[in-house]
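Fig. S4 source data, part A: sequence.
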Amino acid sequence: MAVEVSILVEGGKAAAGATLGSALGPLGVNVGQVVAKINEQTKEFAGMRVPVIVRVDPNTREFTLVVGRPPVAALLLKEAKKEKGSGKPKTEVVGDVSLEAVRRIADAKGDDLQGRTMEEKMNQVIGSCVSLGITVGGEDPRALLKTRVAARGAR
């Protein structure tokens, strides 16, 4: 039976520190190899925190990685080239993303989002823009959501 170790690492910057070392050391796994593989598989998410599950077979000491996707908020902030969202999202705008970027994020998150259709998943991502103080194509995300929902209801 495999042992699972769940960690949250910064993309491409995992280290063999206390978290990984203390969890994987007793299992007899080469922690350096695990770190190298994690960094290789998460480098595209540089600057974002990524969930990773390390599955270890204690008998053979072989491991596999399951790399998750960063949260929608992190992907939106990266797209808007911002470090953090607004402290006052209803009145302060910190950045803007395109509708195409919203589609890419919804597509990348895939089944992590609740919507059944791409349209519903995009609406979820636009909803996250509201909380972060990010506009979509220069438009207030709340107004955009109302327009999209109204248009959908008219079909």
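Fig. S4 source data, part B ends here. The chain has a mean pLDDT of 89.
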